[in-house]
Amino acid sequence: MDLLEYQGKQLFARHGIPVPAGEPARTVEEAVAAAKRIGFPCAIKAQVQVGGRGKLGGIKFAADESQAREHAAAILGMDIRGLVVRELWIEGASQIEDEYYASFVFDRGAKAPLALFSTRGGMDIEQVAEESPEAIASLHIDPLIGFQPFHGRRLAFGAGIPGDLVRPAGAFLEQLYAVFVAEEAMLVEVNPLIVTPQRTLVALDAKVTLDGNSLYRHPDNAQLRDLSSEDPQEQMAKERDLTYVKLDGDIGILGNGAGLVMSTLDLVAQHGGAPANFLDAGGGAKADAITAAVEVIVWDPNVKAVLFNIFGGITRCDEVARGLIEAFEQIKPTIPFVVRLDGTNGEEGRALLQAAALPNVHAASTMDEAAARVVELAHPDGPRR
Amino acid sequence: MSVIVDHDTRLCVSGITGREGSFHSLHNRAYGTNVVSGVTPGKGGQDVEGIPVFNTFHEAVAATAANTAMIFVPPPFAADSILEAAESGIATIIAITEGIPAHDELRVYTHLRRTPQVRLIGPNCPGVLSPGKANVGIIPAAFFRPGNVGVVSRSGTLTYQVGNELAQRGFGNSSIVGIGGDPVPGSSFVDIIDLFQADPETELIVMSGEIGGDAEETAAAHIAAEITKPVVAYIAGFTAPAGKTMGHAGAIVSGSRGTAAAKAEALEAAGVRVAKTPTQVAEIAVELLGG
């Protein structure tokens, strides 16, 4: 779960990490009121998860109330790389002497948190890593020991920062690690971490990714929303407890088990089709889950045909067939379906479907056959590309 | 022969009194697995269709000499249960639970790495099946026969699909091992491939990977250096977009790392045959071992 800048900063602030004073706003009036409380000059920042939003017009500075009104009106509702700005973050403009970079990331390869620290802040860290890897100090933290002062010294001296900032940098990194652990993050990144004229360190940006599996322990974080990226169909799937990811093709996909669904997407693509979604009905899906899944898939008007690929383990094919029959009664889809049922109770499932003789539902006996057939049905005049 | 579970397995199930836990424990017993005990705190002294239940792993091990644990408790209790099983002297822990917080997994992994006598499989995995001997977990055993192909996979249903393609071509399995789809699996491809390499019954190793992380790339380097048995690989997720979690918490591509194409390339460079579809896995197996 990716947080917006202001949500990350509010999280930082709760843990005592210095961030500029700021307030979120969802209307122009809220933005102007916030700007007046914070004082001028202030920054009006679009809250969308897009890198480089400043260059795309998503960050403006206001010297007075009328400018604050003008910028807030311009940025709210703006489309930045396909995301519509629904929220702003108004914060006091900062004085910047230098820009650093600091982060902790859950390193799956090394199976330990990875700390990164650099004096080359304010730009894309991947570019820095490519062009001058020596400019980034890095080390792994033993999760059973945690962040120690020596880690801070190694990172600070390693990055070559001025002597007077070694201690503050170590303290900042220790606090940032505390956020990483306490909030169960997969990533906490500060870019830029600024040096003020008073020689203090302030987090001018915040990029935080939380572990979705841990949210039950963090009810406040579980409530956080990103209005700009909420897709109504993904919300619909979430409410029905389905794992759904929207893609940009036109062939609806349903399967059981994440690996099998990914494999199904690949096969459809190999046959020249473009999947419209990833939908995992999960292990042991019952008929009502299947009905709900059909509802979510066909809600997308781009979908021209649907592929069901089920290999029953805990999931029983007769349950899947019953769910599909129920969906046809309730939703009456008009687009073609290709259904491949194999595994537990496969024969019963296939017999049920045959007896129901649903309109425009085609049975397939293998994954390959099913993928080829659904592409044909979606594009009777040949593949799109 | 086979790996991880066999006739010597003495299984103790954590969460045996739960709906899923009891269902699958009894299924495993019906298959022939020696299910000797279960653990549910507060329900010690009860039994599940004759399987005695204990309050702690330590009691269960003392009374029933369990050597393998299956973890079936919900995510908030799973890390604790794994650590308890490890401390009670159990050598093999198979964690089925899906949705364990990543930081919990990290602490468990780091601790168990320093406890080398304990092997953890999973979490978020379908378990281990050694056809004809023992089944620990939720793999539908009816589809598989004893044989010479060892299968290791990050995904459950994809394992069944690949296994079924092999079965249709007449192949059986030494063991089928699900290592799970989480960011920090207790055992990696490398760990299981080494077991298959040492297992005299296994003549071909099939690995089924997916996007995210670098476990497949690491396995590729290891296979090139250490493994003499033929390996066939299948990778899912070529069409998955970057930055989106594809169902498994581990299946997420960030930047250019962990893509399906990069994994397939690394494996091919290591001399591993990479199948484009699950069906092709079986076709390559026929080529390598004869029909």
Contiguous uncertain segments of 5+ residues of chain B: none
Indicate the overall shape of chain A.
elongated
Helix content of chain B: 25-40%
Radius of gyration of chain A: 26 Å
For the largest interface in this structure, which chains are involved and how many residues does each contribute?
A-B, 52 and 59 residues
- In the predicted model, the low-confidence regions of chain A spanning at least 5 consecutive residues are none
The CATH topology of the largest domain in chain B is Rossmann fold
**Helical element count of chain A?**
13
Number of strands of chain A: 18
Shape assignment of chain B: globular
Termini separation of chain A: 34 Å
What's the CATH class of the largest domain in chain B, please? Alpha Beta
| The number of domains of chain B | 2
Rg calc of chain B: 18 Å
- Whole-number total of structural domains of chain A: 3
Characterize the main sheet of chain B.
7 strands, mixed
- CATH second-level architecture of the largest domain in chain A: 3-Layer(aba) Sandwich
- What is the beta-strand fraction of chain A? 15-25%
What is the typical, i.e. mean, pLDDT of chain B? 94
Structure description:
The complex is a heterodimer of chains A (385) and B (291). By secondary structure, chain A is of the alpha+beta class. Chain A contains 13 helices and 18 strands. Chain A folds into three domains: 21-92, ATP-grasp fold, A domain (Dna Ligase, domain 1); 98-222, ATP-grasp fold, B domain (D-amino Acid Aminotransferase, Chain A, domain 1, 2-Layer Sandwich); 232-378, Succinyl-CoA synthetase domains (Rossmann fold), CATH 3.40.50. In chain A, strands 7, 8, 9, 10, 11 and 12 form a six-stranded antiparallel sheet that branches. In chain A, α11 packs parallel to α12 (346-356). The longest helix of chain A has 17 residues, at 166-182. The two termini of chain A are 34 Å apart. In chain A, 45% of the residues are buried. The mean pLDDT of chain A is 92. Chain B is an alpha/beta fold. Chain B has two domains: 11-121, NAD(P)-binding Rossmann-like Domain (Rossmann fold), CATH 3.40.50.720; 144-289, Rossmann fold, CATH 3.40.50. The radius of gyration of chain B is 18 Å and the shape is globular. Chain B starts with 10 loop residues before the first strand and ends with a helix.
